[in-house]
Amino acid sequence: MATVLYITAHPLHPEESYSLAVGAEFIEAYRKANPADEVVHLDLYKENIPQIDADVLRGWGKLRSGSSFDQLSEAEESKVARLEEILHQFMAADKYVYVSPMWNFSVPPVLKAYTDATSIPGKTFKYTENGPVGLLPGKKALHIQASGSVYSEGPLATIEMGFSYLSKILRFYGIESEAIFVEGTAVSEQAPFVKEKAIALAKEVAKRF
User: Is the entire prediction scored with pTM above 0.85?
Assistant: First the structure.
């Protein structure tokens, strides 16, 4: 049995979001194809994801210098402990499905915060004399990304920083990823066809993911 983290980063409902609509269809198809697997839904807009702020940096610094958790301030302890929970859950999973819109050519801030929480040296990657090495090999990831224009190819591909960013971070952990692009939705007359095509692809990918 595999554990799948279904990580969504959109504040609206699937009826209002192209990325979430495709993601929901993917997960439904995945569950049918893999009934024994556990799917854990992380709605990042409802999760407590501490940003790396002064409390976190000071708390980490104290722990590195030998302090124990009970020597941290209340804010430091609560934020650092929550970040460890997020990290351990991420490391324990086998597969990851990220669902997000493209905002300002990249991912929503809440997804960036979540990614920051999982990018910890010695846990998801390490530095060696031969360069960085990912510590989570053998896992796989999928990113379902919706955008108003087409960014996966063509003249706008050079400014696509959503899947480009996420795939590079995951590769840093040793995780290979693929994408389903739901793009061109800003053109109202073609949006339904874009969605339909992406859903069909998602159902196919779910069978082999």
Answer: yes
